[in-house]
Amino acid sequence: MQRLRLKADGRIVELRDGQEIPLVPAHPAVAAMQPSATQPVVRDLRRRAQLTQLEFAAKLGVPVETIRNWEQGKRAPRGPARALLAVIAHSPETVFAALSSQPTAA
To answer: What is the rounded CA–CA span in Å between residue 65 and residue 105?
Structure first.
């Protein structure tokens, strides 16, 4: 089982033998995740998952407008969202399985 940690700057590291090892995302553009580069990255991740904007938003638990804004370059993912996208690029099946098994808030 892989142990991951989200750093304050949005990086994700793997914890191995008490050391933090940077997690290299499967999608090279995710590492840079600059606002100008965000649009094709988010769209590419969504398309690779074969999801519509509405389905992708539902899986991530964000409004569909958020996905649209990211894909159109109007806004860029920050903090936890950026980290989540990086993990999705690395292992989408694992992330979506984990997100689908979370209990919903009452």
So the answer is: 22
Residue 3 exposed, middle or buried by CB count within 10 Å (0-12, 13-18, 19+): exposed
CATH architecture of the domain with residue range 4-96: Orthogonal Bundle (1.10)
Handedness of CA 69, 71, 74, 75 (dihedral sign): positive
Give the predicted TM-score (pTM) of the model: 0.61
Backbone angle region of 5, left / alpha / beta, with phi > 0 → left and psi within -120 to 50 → alpha: beta
Kindly report the average pLDDT of the chain as a whole number: 81
**Segments of the chain scoring below 50 in pLDDT:** 26, 34-36
